[in-house]
Amino acid sequence: MLSNIAASPVDYAAIAAIFVLIATTFGNIILAHKKSNKTKITKEDDSQSVEIKDDAALEKSESVEPVPLKEELSWNARLFKGMARTRNDVWAKVSNIISGNNLAEEMRDELEEILFTADLSPAIVDELLDELPKFSQEEGEPLVKVKEFLQSKVSSAQQNVKKEFYEFSPNSNGPKVIMIVGVNGAGKTTTIGKLATKYKAQGAKVVVGACDTFRAAAVEQLEVWCKRADVEMVRAEEGADPSGVAFDAVAKAKEINADYCIIDTAGRLHTKSNLMDELAKTKKVMSKVIPDAPHETLLVLDAITGQNALRQAEEFNKSLQLSGLIFTKCDGSAKAGSAVSIVQNLGVPIIYIGVGENVEDLDIFDLDAYLNALLGIESKLA
Ligand SMILES: Nc1nc2c(ncn2[C@@H]2O[C@H](COP(=O)(O)OP(=O)(O)O)[C@@H](O)[C@H]2O)c(=O)[nH]1
Ligand SMILES: [Mg+2]
Q: What pLDDT, on a 0 to 100 scale, did the predictor assign at position 353?
């Protein structure tokens, strides 16, 4: 009987196929289980009012590597391209309406609606709505007048930006310590990778402190950038005290006489303790190594967050006395205009702007170029 049911080569193949199917299914179940656990843990630890839970962004950022450069574009062209969404969704519509000679009263509601989608603060929108009929009647291009209006709101804060932010020049005063803060997924690690690359390219010696000890993946992500940029990174075990890592990083930068020490931080914590308290502690600890460190505390803001970014910025500023802002993801957001309200409210300038994931997609925030790209006024793309 048994010999009658002995398997033929075809049967063996079928049995093997069934085994492969079972193994794959089992593997997928385990993977799915691990993944759902991870999501659960991050949600349980959500104790900060200022955090944004963006698991999709997190998953993406865990595997992120610098995106290879596909095309050679000047920074202005990159900025103009990156701001296309906000320009087309908001300012092109405003321009169409106000370039009609007589701005009828009933247009006000339509304009108001469009301007709110740009995430300008209600106060700025109201003021601008009062001005727009004048702009459309006066001589000259109405959009240029909108530009002057927006410029007047932020130019005093922007004038405070120190030139040495952008140009490295060797000095003997020891490392300049830059602490980077922001909620999860805002773009801190990516921005640090870009900055370290830029400073290194200018001939600076850079040390990076991996103080986001919440996830091992965050440290690995930073490591990819640091290796590419060929800069030193100070790290600790997952779950280590972030202040300790910051202390070690600044000490290392001092010891090797580095020019910059850039500190990455967490946007959420392992414990239920307050994120702001932890960051304030990290900030303070650095001054034990270098008395006036950190010399700069920069908040990374995701443009997609719009007006919520203002609330985040206020909270960070209260606890950490920010010296500047970095506005990321202006590409892919219709809310890049919220930068104007944030700078006006905080009186803290934007130092850098990010319009993509590549190292070339971060550059100096130039108010004039930003407003031109935002409003579509002129494009010096060369
Ligand atoms: N499109 C776009 N994506 C960005 C920009 N900056 C960062 N990202 C992406 O945003 C995600 C989160 O960035 P990450 O640096 O990990 O944020 P962190 O949690 O604040 O450290 C990653 O996928 C980055 O590649 C930007 O300017 N534009
Ligand atoms: Mg990070």
A: 94
> CA-CA distance, 163 to 353, in Å (whole number)?
15
Higher pLDDT, 345 or 335: 345
Report which ligand 1 atom has the smallest distance to the Cα of 186: 20
331 CA to centre of ligand 1 in angstroms: 11
* Selected residue with higher pLDDT from 63 and 284: 284
Alpha carbon distance 184, 324 (integer Å): 18
Return the percentage of the chain with pLDDT > 90, whole number: 41
Q: Atom 11 of ligand 1 has which residue's CA nearest to it?
A: 61
Q: 324 near 356, Cβ under 8 Å?
A: no
CA gap 339, 344 in Å, rounded: 8
Mutate to test the pocket of ligand 1, among 50, 60, 190, 194 (most ligand atoms within 8 A of CB): 190
1 Cα: distance to centroid of ligand 1 (angstroms): 66
Residue nearest to atom 7 of ligand 1 (CA): 187
Of 94 and 334, the one with more pLDDT: 94
Instruction: Indicate which atom in ligand 1 lies nearest the CA of residue 264.
Output: 21
Residue nearest to atom 19 of ligand 1 (CA): 185
The residues lining ligand 1, judged by C-beta closer than 6 Å to any ligand atom, are 57, 60-61, 64, 182, 184-190, 267, 300, 328-329, 331-332, 354-357, 361
Q: pLDDT for 263-280, tens place per residue?
A: 999 987 655 568 899 999
